[in-house]
Amino acid sequence: MTLWQRPLKRFQAMSHDKLLAYGNAKGERIYAEQRTRFRLNSLKSFVSLFVVGAVLSVALAACGENASNSTTEAPAASPVAANKQNVELTLVSFAVTKAAHEAIIPKFVEQWKKEHNQTVSFRQSYGGSGSQTRAVIDGLEADIVHLALAGDTQKIEKAGLIQPGWEKEVPNNGIVSKSVAALITRPGNPKGIKTWEDLVKGDVKLITADPKTSGIARWNFLALWNSVIKTGGDEAKATEYVTKVYNNVPILTKDAREATDTFAKQGQGDVLINYENEVLLAQQKGEKVDYVVPEVNISIDNPIAVVDTNVDKHGNREVAEGFVKFLYTPEAQQEFVKLGFRPANEEIAQTKAATDKFPKVKTLGTVQDFGGWEAIDQKFFVDGGMFDKIQAQRKR
Length: 396
What we know:
Layout: H1 6-12, H2 16-23, H3 25-37, H4 43-72, H5 79-82, E1 86-94, H6 98-116, E2 119-127, H7 129-137, E3 144-146, H8 150-158, E4 175-179, E5 181-185, E6 206-209, H9 215-229, H10 235-247, E7 252-253, H11 256-264, E8 271-275, H12 276-284, E9 290-292, E10 296-298, E11 300-306, H13 308-314, H14 317-327, H15 330-338, E12 342-343, H16 346-349, H17 352-357, E13 363-365, H18 373-381, H19 386-392
Parallel strand pairs: 1-2, 1-3, 6-7, 6-8, 10-13
Antiparallel strand pairs: 3-11, 4-11, 4-12, 5-8, 5-9
Helix pairs in contact: 2-4, 3-4, 6-14, 6-15, 7-8, 9-10
GO molecular function, one term: molecular carrier activity
Protein name: Sulfate ABC transporter substrate-binding protein
Pfam family, one: SBP_bac_11
């Protein structure tokens, strides 16, 4: 079942008779009470019942007409939004996608206006992926979530806001943007940072975000762990190595944007782990950034999903699904590439623009190597998990 068919299937599961009964339960109770109260041996009772019956007939007919309209007027779309001249979407995303969405959204708005004669406006919220996830679960009425990791989207699913199977109804298991981890150094790389192993040097101070609040920080943790496992180390060696790395972290920021500001604007640390796309975006803005993309790396995959409960409430499912679909088009994917994201679209990934822009990674780990996000969270990031144990061993 595709993303566009789900509302139709859900609607068809309810029979016409059930809709009528649901819509007129109160009327039927009134009718039953009137029927008990009056007797047919009285002309007055007969007239009263006739009047009540007529009223109910009109109500049932009106409900039947409305139910019929609901099934014939774009059932796979949003009948509410279809009748609006202006439609608003709320996009909730992780911090580093802001520039990409600000470039893509005007293109979608223009296309939608041309094809549907509707003006779409966006409310946008950006922050740490973990924090954004909790905000949506706690009541931030996002229509679309673009988060740093599928595990965060799954948390919203478990909260009952996104229907199961969301990742199977769009391309690439819902992954719409990609990146890898990069090590950003001070100009000239005075500490000689070239590989992951260099991060455990005693005189190296590393800046990274907190995995408890930031999606990128979880990717950073996995990249560190993966660098040991993919080069032949076991879990004991990985634990030892990652513990040493975090001993060199003077401050854990709440999200990737704050980590970048701490490193670049406040001048703290010798090296910053961040998304490769953040580095490339900074270079496009004219900043001189020295960085290394390690040959052993992790595929940082960012999913997109429609928040079913909210789009149905807001009546804008058709537009929300249209935006998600648009993000996979070559036009949108090229914007992701321009702003430093590795494309999810394979055709775009093979273009000269993409191959020239992104260094080739020799050994690339994936979430699947770790058993998926549920297994990752249980092992590393739940309260009392591996990250908390490592934190407890940090030198104070």
